[in-house]
């Protein structure tokens, strides 16, 4: 503990009380998100990772875990599921099989990795800011941007791959003197191997991250004078780590396969990803505005484009520019695909404000943006990532032996991982079509009926408000009905 206290004191001595407080508060929010932000952001996190983990832990049968089209197509890498397997296997062997506890451990690992990747990125890039105010803005954005604790608490490929990439990038930046001008790499062969290993792990977790590590290699070719050894050992290590991941895929699928090629073939050549919808080139820019928070969204977009136009060959700018352009050309788009830009966007904000005279920005606007971000941070941290997760917690701990539940088009994917017994979910078009004399019905419709309510996802006073405005909402209600 004394060594940790020394490290904290050294950080405080170097960057001051304010910046130290930002990262301490950020750590608190990260830990709170681990506890409260249960569930997943997008179904892929459950279908392509948690199901695989549950299967290898012996908690799920093949019929429950391997039903997605992605399994027979063999497009998912097994590195991340096996990392979580290693975290959960000891508790499982000791008899702690509660899935909510196991996912808590996995979120804790993912969150702390994400937190420390941002902390290290700050330490290696802080020297680029000569203004105390801009450095404070950078530290605040990098540690307390409203969705970061939520994002880092996710057991998603986007999160883990971003953390690995950022650690590798930080290690690389620590060994060069400039992010924009011609520079030299001062690291050893060991440093090159470690840096490339992190980028390889990032790629294995999420193949699209090659669009981040690839631009770094191009930048090294253009800007690093002694780049021959760096490129040779770096690319060699990257390829070697990829080959070392193939045995994990063999253990996962039960046969030798090339998951990266399978992914490219299915999603790019066969166009499988486009079947989930396509969007125009400008989708990400428009969605950051429409789904983000006013003012905060502006301060994420404008500095990015300022950097892209004014400093296109700055390392941090070059990575973000290539990443955004390539993703904009891909037909199927989701906001989560550009989450890896978050730490880079924090750099863009502070760098632009430092360059264009931050004093021109009124204090009231800065305070308002900080207020907005703080409010959104509180909501995203303490709200479940997937609201129905509370329903599964109810089923897991319910003393009633519920074996069948009729649903009115509520369940998209049954979360077998969070069940401690087999429960059949059966879709029906209406309550009247059910012939059983006693049955459980799950609905998100806010209508009155004579059945007994056994579970609701929101308190009664919120239900009352919702009933005034809508007959249907995301309120899950489980009722027990008995017919004559």
Concise overview:
The chain has 484 residues and is of the alpha/beta class. Helix content is 60%, strand content 7%. The N and C termini lie far apart (67 Å).
Task: Tell me what you see in this structure.
This protein is α/β, with parallel strands linked by helices. The protein folds into two domains: 16-381, no CATH class; 389-482, no CATH class. Helix content is 60%, strand content 7%. It has 21 helices and five strands. The chain has a five-stranded mixed sheet, with helices on one face. Helix 2 packs parallel to helix 19 and helix 8 (132-144) packs antiparallel against helix 18 (342-355). The radius of gyration is 24 Å and the shape is globular. The model has no long low-confidence stretch (mean pLDDT 88).
Layout of strands and helices, then pairs:
Blueprint (H helix, E strand, L loop, with lengths): L1 H14 L1 H20 L6 H14 L5 H4 L4 H4 L5 H15 L5 H27 L6 H13 L3 H5 L4 H17 L15 H17 L4 H14 L4 H26 L5 H11 L13 H8 L7 H13 L4 H15 L12 H14 L7 H20 L6 H9 L6 E4 L16 E4 L10 E8 L6 E5 L3 H10 L2 E11 L2
Parallel strand pairs: 1-2, 1-3
Antiparallel strand pairs: 3-5, 4-5
Helix pairs in contact: 1-2, 2-7, 2-8, 2-19, 3-6, 6-7, 7-8, 7-10, 8-18, 10-11, 11-13, 12-17, 16-18
């Amino acid at each position: 503990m004394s060594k940790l206290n020394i490290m904290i004191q050294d950080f405080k001595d170097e960057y001051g009380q304010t910046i130290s407080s930002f990262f301490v508060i950020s750590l608190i929010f990260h830990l709170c998100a681990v506890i409260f932000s249960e569930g997943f952001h997008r179904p892929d996190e459950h279908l392509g990772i948690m199901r695989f983990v549950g299967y290898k832990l012996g908690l799920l049968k093949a019929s429950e875990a391997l039903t997605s089209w992605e399994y027979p197509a063999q497009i998912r890498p097994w590195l991340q599921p096996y990392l979580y397997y290693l975290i959960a296997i000891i508790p499982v062997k000791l008899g702690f099989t509660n899935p909510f506890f196991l996912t808590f451990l996995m979120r804790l690992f993912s969150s702390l990795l994400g937190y420390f990747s941002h902390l290290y990125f700050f330490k290696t890039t802080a020297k680029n800011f000569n203004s105390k105010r801009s450095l404070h803005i950078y530290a605040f954005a990098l540690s307390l941007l409203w969705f970061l604790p939520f994002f880092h608490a996710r057991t998603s490929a986007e999160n883990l791959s971003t953390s690995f990439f950022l650690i590798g990038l930080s290690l690389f930046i620590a060994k060069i003197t400039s992010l924009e001008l011609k520079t030299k790499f001062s690291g050893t062969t060991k440093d090159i191997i470690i840096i490339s290993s992190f980028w390889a792990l990032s790629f294995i977790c999420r193949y699209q991250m090659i669009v981040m590590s690839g631009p770094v290699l191009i930048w090294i070719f253009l800007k690093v004078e002694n780049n021959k050894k760096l490129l040779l050992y770096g690319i060699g290590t990257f390829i070697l780590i990829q080959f070392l991941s193939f045995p994990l895929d063999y253990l996962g699928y039960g046969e030798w396969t090339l998951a990266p090629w399978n992914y490219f073939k299915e999603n790019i050549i066969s166009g499988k990803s486009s079947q989930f919808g396509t969007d125009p080139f400008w989708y990400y820019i428009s969605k950051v505005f429409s789904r983000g928070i006013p003012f905060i969204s502006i301060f994420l977009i404008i500095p990015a484009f300022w950097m892209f136009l004014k400093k296109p060959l700055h390392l941090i700018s070059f990575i973000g520019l290539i990443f955004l352009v390539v993703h904009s050309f891909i037909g199927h788009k989701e906001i989560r695909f550009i989450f890896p830009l978050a730490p880079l966007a924090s750099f863009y904000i502070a760098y632009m404000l430092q360059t264009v005279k931050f004093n021109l920005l009124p204090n009231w606007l800065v305070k308002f943006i900080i207020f907005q971000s703080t409010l959104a941070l509180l909501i995203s941290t303490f709200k479940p990532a997937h609201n129905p997760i509370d329903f599964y917690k109810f089923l897991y701990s319910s003393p009633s032996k519920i074996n069948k539940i009729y649903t009115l088009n509520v369940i998209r994917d049954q979360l077998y991982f969070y069940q401690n017994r087999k429960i059949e979910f059966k879709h029906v078009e209406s309550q009247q079509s059910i012939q059983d004399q006693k049955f459980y019905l799950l609905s998100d419709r806010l209508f009155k009926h004579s059945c007994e309510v056994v579970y609701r996802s929101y308190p009664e006073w919120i239900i009352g408000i919702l009933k005034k405005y809508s007959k249907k909402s995301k309120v899950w209600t489980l009722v027990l009905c008995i017919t004559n």
